[in-house]
Every structure is written in structure tokens, then in C-alpha cells.
Recover the amino acids of this structure.
């Protein structure tokens, strides 16, 4: 079996680790120089970096978080001070975008 890892660079490790655990409610698996979160078998790793080229890119990668009720999930994030875009209908459900503290795009996704 192939291990799936998502690497997210951050210029403020403590701030980002708190965002992913406290704001998003992800469970921290382990932490040393890297914070690791297990997302149903996908390993999300926060990697500290001070190199701007490692923090920004022109790619189209996004982390999508499946939710049962997108309106409720968006409201919960807004109540924690996270700006969340409007919920929009797409072919197979609804989605709403927001950003982590390092401006990485994240999506809430409610499948239909």
C-alpha cells in the first residue's frame, strides 16, 4: 500500500499547528520538528520553512475537507474568526473555500 502525505509549508509553525488542531479540530498524531495530523489514512505534515518560494506556488493543489453540513461547518469556522467564502453549488455537491494562516487554500466539501 502506498502512503499518502500532504506537505504544507509554514513560516510560523506554532500558529499553523494551532490552526490545524484548535480551529479545524484535526487530531495531532505526533510532533517534533514537523507536526503530523492523520486524516483518515492521509498524513498531513506541517513543515516549518522561512523560504518564501516554498510557501507560495502557482499550482492548483487544494486540501478538501469533507463535511456533512457545509453551512454548519462554515459557520463554525467563521465563529472562530476564519473568513470563509460563500457556499456554492457544484456538479456533485457544495463547496466553500477559506485559507490557513499561510494563505494555503482549503475547501469544505459537502458531497451530494
Amino acid at each position: 500500500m502506498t502512503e499518502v502525505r500532504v506537505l504544507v509549508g509554514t513560516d510560523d509553525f506554532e500558529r499553523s499547528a494551532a490552526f490545524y488542531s484548535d480551529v479545524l479540530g484535526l487530531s495531532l498524531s505526533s510532533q517534533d520538528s514537523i507536526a503530523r495530523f492523520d486524516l483518515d489514512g492521509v498524513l498531513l505534515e506541517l513543515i516549518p520553512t522561512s523560504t518564501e518560494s516554498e510557501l507560495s506556488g502557482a499550482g492548483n493543489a487544494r486540501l478538501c475537507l469533507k463535511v456533512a453540513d457545509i453551512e454548519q461547518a462554515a459557520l463554525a469556522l467563521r465563529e472562530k474568526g476564519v473568513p470563509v467564502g460563500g457556499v456554492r453549488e457544484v456538479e456533485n455537491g457544495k463547496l466553500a473555500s477559506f485559507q490557513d494562516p499561510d494563505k494555503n487554500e482549503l475547501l469544505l466539501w459537502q458531497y451530494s
Notes: Helices lie at 13-23, 52-55, 70-79.
